[in-house]
Amino acid sequence: MTYGWRTVTATPDLEYQPHVDDLALVLSGLVAGRLLLLGGDPVVGMPAVEGRHAVPPDALLPNGLYVFRTALGTDVLWCQRGRPPALAEAVFRESVPADHPLCKAQQWFEFFWAQATPLGLAPAYGEGDWVTIAGDRTVGRVESSTARDQTHVYKVRVDGQVRSIPEAGLRPLSIDDDDPVTWLESSPASAKELSVSLTVTKLTNPLTDVIYSYLSSKTVFRPYQFRPVLRLLESPHQRLLIADEVGLGKTIEAGLIWTELEARNPHLSRVLIVCPAALVKKWQAEMRNRFDRRLRELDRAGLEDLIEVLRSGDETKPFFGVVSLERLRSSSLLAELTELHPRLDLVIVDEAHYLRNQGTLSYELGELLSDWADALLFLSATPLNLGSSDLFNLLNLLAPDEFADPHIFPLQLEPNRFLNRVAQHIYDHRNEPRQLIPTLDAVRTCQLGQAVVSQPEYLQLHDLLDADALGAAEIARARRHLVELNTLSSVLTRTRKVDVAEQKAVREPISVDVPWTPAEQQSYRAVLEWARQRAMALDHPVGFTTQMPLRQAASCLPVMRGVVAEKDAGIAAHSYDDEDFDDWDAIVGSDSPEDDGAPLSPTAIAAALAGVGEVDTKLDCFLRVLEETDRWGGGQMLVFSFFRRTIAYLEAHLQGRWRARSMHGGTKMDERQRIMDDFRAGKFDILLASEVASEGLDFEFCSVVVNYDLPWNPMKVEQRIGRLDRIGQTHEKIFVVNFHVPGTIETDIFERLYERIGVFQESIGELEPILRDRVNELANIALDPSLSEAQRERRIGEVAVVVENQRHAVEDLREAQSLLAGIDHLLIEGFEQDTAGRGRFVGPHELAVLLERFLADGTRARLTAAGSGRVELVGDEELADRVARLGGSGTGSRFTLSELVARLRDGDPVHLTYETGIDTRSSLDLITFRHPLIRAATRWFGDRPSGVKRFGAVRIPSGPAGRWLVVVHLARTTGLRPSLELWPVAIDLQTGEPDEGAADRFLAAVARGELHDDEELLSVESLVRHVEAAESHLHRRQIETQGERQADNEALVDARIAAQRASVQVKVGRARQTLSLEKVRRSKPLTRLHEGRINNLRIRLEETVEELNQRRGLAVETHPVAVAVMRTDPG
Q1: CA 425 → CA 434, 440, 495, 561, 985, distances in Å?
Q2: Would you place residue 167 in the very low, low, confident or very high pLDDT band (cuts 50, 70, 90)?
């Protein structure tokens, strides 16, 4: 049968086609018993026995044509108001299950047919339309309609009651939303009504100049945590590496970014977090406690469910999941995910440095995540060495188009060196800024400098510096331009603890002397001699595995004695990587080839270990430390050991005397979280832990960290201390306890070095690239059997001097690091002023006004103060129904949406707060723009134009005395950097002049909930001329902005074209060099390959240039949203 779009040889019972050009032509080939048009405009004259039209409330089916053949005839459904089209399909009913999509579509056909309108008799008003009742102009909202005797009867909700009214008794509601002068003629709104109007405007429009994540979570406000938010908003590709030092709250920063993206994309519904297995529970807890988000752990069953959601093609079904890096990269389901090529709104990768090595499973996973993600965040506290490929590899995953070639990458970084020098000296040269111009001009000498020089910000910065002096405003603009010009500014942000203006806890190192007995010393020397002899036998430098027996002996001799007693064959060696190694459970016995020829003979060492007897001097010293807890302020204590057996040994000796628990790599994830919760709740005082078990966990409530054994890697020491020395630490001092055991490598070499370079006193993040290689060198010197003790001592001293000298020269490294971070801290200068001071945020008090008005509009819900910043809400059936209509996952509340709806319907109290600094464990629901009550209120007022008034007279409590007319517009700008902003214009009613400060005070009063009614009104006639003055000022600003942004947009297009040309030129040059070599070698296949690559590069360049040129045009358009007469009332 021919349907006009295809021919089939069989006649399936159920068919679906996504695209239909001519419905009448299609139906002419069918014997249709019934025709149902779902959505779209009603069509008259279709060749069907009976036709009807219905408008579904939600997008239930994919758009397209459905055919259902039954014994009674052929039914046809044409869906025009549904989801995006799916793939064409034709099946026989008996061959598919009852829940097949086409079977469900047939069920929807029957459901809507029963309530549909006959074709040719379309209702004048649809569900949700606002109408007035003829004669008295009462406003109502249509809930449903029924066809009756060639007309329609409507159910209309008026003032909380539902009335049945024939179509002839209704009139469309006509409101002129575009003329502020017309608004002046209407009755003025109350201050709260006007506040609601502006709040709804902010919540229904993703405004570029509003920071939605500000004051929207259970976190203490710290300006630096908004650097990544601001950076991502300015990024052209929404991809960012957050490289903050440990303890500064990268998890919170990621949560703020998620919140910001959600505000700008209400349909954001697919978020995946990838992190090490040890951090999965932490992510779940942090997102739940601070942001009221529920993350599902994607174990195998969770991944299978995710795949099922993706296979369904239902883009509206949300999922928010967290999965361990280890599970995802090795899962057998990864191939299925790859085939589906899912689209994810946001992907967050914690500890992203694990992805940095090309050719590994982790790196390949990173490539997949980059392909799948619309927005991508990498988090890593590990400092990145500019001399390595680590940074390039991560940035290549983040922005492969921008950072595509490792050979070009150093050239891309080169201009930053000169920009940073300008930034470092701009304040010192504020009275002679022209002296900085030669440094700025040096950017032109860089091979890729033209890409920077051609940007509009460069020219504007050049003009700023060409002045006799710079004021505070000019310095701020110059710094902003420097941030924008940094070649890494769009993809990387880094905050160091030294940059954070907060009082830090002081680290106080405590050295505890351990006077080993002669027998203990002899036992250690026996193991040390074995290690050196083993290195000689294997004829290679001492590796990680050779160190392990020696380190275990220094950690705990009784444990080492037990290890040797258990095994006769020798000491085991595994080829674990230090970064992933948690323990040395099998210190004896090994099948590793590295172990050949040097087993530890029990006859050579066991006697020495046995000679120690029951003596354990180190344990005795540790127990004395515990008895002196008053010395440490009585705080909780975190005790680190590298070895599980040491941890178990200590736990056994503490039981019955101290409240202690243990946690190591063998502790299950669920159990780790319970231990952490109990420790934080004060149910025990001492936690014995390994580094891996504590990775990513916060212990800011502790005041003492004990290094029971000392790592041979200074960064491990830093990470241990960093678990306590982090934001939120309330103690004035953090005590760092180390055990000083003369004669051990840990004490004689590493502890001495760490003290010289200040590891125990302060963060040494910048020293990591220097120390990384020196640590291995020190280990080799310590265990080199060819060195005498005097030679060993001299070599160790030489290394220590080199490290210490580089410690004093760390400023050079910091300048190199500035190539990464640029002048990132300048990004948030004035952040609080720009948000709170100018009202560019959604404040909790304005949300309180919105919620109050929402509840008063047709519900019997009660909202009462409960003290201490709490309010109690008791809902009703109407409020429950409004919230239930939201659908979705119900994020933004500690309740699920169904739980909240049930409580509202049953009248069970819901305890709320507007205070963001509350305890994360509080049972209060924090009201933010994400809360279901606020989303329901926003939808309610956004859908009823008559309920949102645009003009009012208000008082604000602070500012200079006076009266102003304030007109607020939405301003939309197109181009390469589109924007949507609030433009308030305030006209002084006494002078008739614009007052920018008054306009900002008005928006700030809205955000703070400080608009109050003003009973003193002015005549409409007296206000009209001020409205016209405001419009005139707005038009001037619009014209000026159009010109400035048009010029900036064209310069930006030129800059991007120049950058593309420069990059391609370098790539083509390198390809030509390779091509010349292949021609000399007479390799025709490779010659053709490189010739083709050169040609493709040129073609791709021209395509990119054409696309960019098409975006040269720019427009600035405005739309009025509110008018207010504002008076300052300082009293």
Answers
A1: 12, 12, 20, 61, 37
A2: confident
